[in-house]
Each structure stands twice: as structure tokens, then as C-alpha cells.
Amino acid sequence: MKLDETTKNMLVAEAYEAQKAAYVPYSNFSVGAALLAKNGTVYRGCNIENASYSPTNCAERTAFFKAVSEGVTEFEAIAVVGNKKGEKGGFCAPCGVCRQVMAEFCDPDEFLIILGAGDKTSVYALKDMLPLGFTNENLKSS
Ligand SMILES: O=c1ccn([C@H]2C[C@H](O)[C@@H](CO)O2)c(=O)[nH]1
Ligand SMILES: [Zn+2]
């Protein structure tokens, strides 16, 4: 999919809005995500940390799970922004677990990951962020 500038900028702005809700008392690193579904709906997500650390949910997965829990499973693109509170920071690339969740629902050639940092953006296809990923294709009999 080719992403136009307006959509890209809208998604990054939505990701910055989502970032405001980040619950990050342990890392102080706030992440926001904005997931564009094929039906046009944008799902915002933030990271949500926990005193026990491992239950922490990343912003990207929060956005995906919000959408999937509402029956929406087809997606175009996600924008991600992240930085330490009070700092500017650079691009925040999705962690491996979030890339795996993306691979569950998204076409690796088509789905786009937009990284935002201030006015800068950088766009990647999922296949370039998760080469040779394990998917439901691997579970089919050969
Ligand atoms: O792409 C990323 C990378 C990190 N985090 C969160 C997890 C944790 O709350 C904090 C520091 O790792 O940032 C995300 O939400 N998304
Ligand atoms: Zn993650």
C-alpha cells in the first residue's frame, strides 16, 4: 500500500495523542501507537507497565488488541512514537513481540510501520522488520 503524506502525518499525530496516556512509572519511557484499520478506524494504544514488570504491554500491542477485541482484524499501517518523559528521543522501533503480533494479522508486503520523531518519519514494510517470521503458514501441513 502507498501511504499518502496526509494519512502518514495524521497517524503520527494520533500516536502522539496516544502517548499521553502511557502508564510508565518504572521506565519513564512513554510510547504511543496509532493503528489504521482497513475500514478507516484508527485505534490508539499506549504502553502500560506493571510493578511485576513482565505483564507490561507495549503501545503497539495495546492498539492491536483493542482492535481485534472489537472484531477488527484487517490493517493498513501503524505509527509509533516513543521517548523518555521530558526528552525528545529518536525513532522507537517496535520490539520483537509486537512485530510477531503484527505478523499474525498483517500482510508482510503491504503492512507499513511508520516511525515518528518530531517532524521526522521513516516508513518500513513489515517484511523488512520481521524477515523470515514464523506465521500460520508454518503450521500448515506440507
Ligand atoms: O516499541 C516499543 C518499545 C518499548 N515499549 C515500552 C515497553 C516498556 O513499557 C517501555 C520500556 O521498554 O517501553 C513499547 O511500548 N513499544
Ligand atoms: Zn513491543
Task: Give me a quick take on this structure.
This protein is an alpha+beta fold. It has helices spanning 5-19, 59-69, 96-105, 126-129; strands at 29-37, 42-46, 75-84, 112-117, 120-125. The protein binds 2'-deoxyuridine and zinc ion (ZN).
Description:
A hairpin with a 2-residue loop joins strand 4 and strand 5. This protein has one domain (5-129): Cytidine Deaminase, domain 2 (3-Layer(aba) Sandwich), CATH 3.40.140.10. The chain has helices spanning 5-19, 59-69, 96-105, 126-129; strands at 29-37, 42-46, 75-84, 112-117, 120-125. The model has no long low-confidence stretch (mean pLDDT 97). The protein starts with a helix and ends in a 13-residue tail after the last helix. Strands 2-1-3-4-5 form a five-stranded mixed β-sheet. The protein has 142 residues and is α+β, with helices and mostly antiparallel strands. Helices cover 28% and strands 25% of the residues. The structure holds 2'-deoxyuridine and zinc ion (ZN). 2'-deoxyuridine (DUR) is lined by residues 24, 27, 29, 31, 47, 49, 56, 58-60, 80, 82, 92, 94-95, 98.
